[in-house]
Amino acid sequence: TKVGGRNGFSVFDASMREQMQERRDLATGLRNAIGRNELELHYQPLVDLPTGQTGGYEALVRWNHPAKGVLNPDVFIPIAEESTLINELGEWVIRNALAEAATWPDHLTIAVNVSPAQMRDKGFLRLVANALAASGVQPQRLELEVTESLFIRDEEEVLKLLQSFRRMGVRISLDDFGTGYSSLKYLQAFPFDKIKIDRSFVSGLLDREDCQAIVQSVIALAKDLEISTTAEGVETDDQLEALRQRGCAQVQGFLFSKAVPSRNLPFNRTEGSDE
Ligand code: C2E
Ligand code: CA
Ligand code: CA
Ligand code: CA
């Protein structure tokens, strides 16, 4: 629609066109990124409470863009999700995360983010089974992180898929809990092993009563349903202490570490090698 006169419209139009061109360029670059080895996985520790020991790592994808430098997934995952590119990217992520996890101490879990479109792909279950077999990683070590947006369509299909993963031994985590189409009925109806409490609630934990109430109720409810809890985005000791007191099972955040390449994980680092 035209906004204002001819001039106002053309300015608006030009910046829109620029944005669309930018997205097209990123999509084209991304299509080649896998073959050119420009994608990289970084790993962020998931720290168990009350022991304080690392129970596993979440794989977070990065794109070493030839011109723009390191791009975070918020920039390119949404673009990949507009086409079947997300399936290709997702397969790369699962295969590479499992191949790397195969070299880690085998008590450590590996968590991988999965887009709704990937989950809905007919070949996804087999892809995961193949990648597990190829890597030799026990299915019990793999956690698939899904978001609530997965449940707005095809509930029956999704339920069957999650049950199949459960039979394989693969764990399912509900990511970003509380931000989406949250419904308590999903917690009851779907076989989740873990709820990840979104960073937005953790960041308000110390000074906002609503955040405190939500975090407290989610942990209590999860306990009743025998689902584990991980709090995301823990940045301070006070947040950690508040979560510990409330019985949260696992924490993740910059307080412990940002996501780093596999070669920089503690068990891969030899003394004296700083980088
Ligand atoms: P997410 O799954 O919620 O991942 C957590 C994000 O929060 C990561 O951002 C992580 O670096 C950041 N984070 C961790 N701890 C802290 C903290 O203490 N403070 C703050 N401010 N941030 C923290 P990242 O790596 O940029 O990833 C963004 C999102 O991109 C992820 O959110 C996830 O939804 C998506 N993503 C990442 N990797 C993949 C992937 O391989 N496949 C798919 N489909 N999505 C991915
Ligand atoms: Ca996640
Ligand atoms: Ca999350
Ligand atoms: Ca989040």
Alpha-carbon distance between the termini?
Answer: 53 Å
Shape: globular
* N-to-C series of helices and strands: HEEEHHEHHEHEHEHHEHEE
Please bin the fraction of helical residues: 40-55%
Ligands and ions found:
ligand C2E, calcium ion
| Gyration radius over CA | 20 Å
Unreliable spans are: none
- Count of runs of 4 or more consecutive helical residues: 10
Share of β-strand residues: 15-25%
Lateral strand order in the biggest sheet: 1-2-4-5-6-7-8-9
Q: What is the number of E strands?
A: 10
Largest sheet: 8 strands, mixed, barrel
Fold topology:
Elements: H1 6-33, E1 39-48, E2 54-65, E3 69-71, H2 73-80, H3 85-101, E4 109-113, H4 116-120, H5 124-135, E5 142-146, H6 155-168, E6 171-177, H7 184-189, E7 194-197, H8 199-203, H9 209-224, E8 228-231, H10 237-245, E9 250-251, E10 260-261
Parallel strand pairs: 2-4, 4-5, 5-6, 6-7, 7-8, 8-9
Antiparallel strand pairs: 1-2, 1-9, 1-10, 2-3
Helix pairs in contact: 3-5
The structure holds ligand C2E and calcium ion (3 copies).
One calcium ion (CA) binds next to β6.
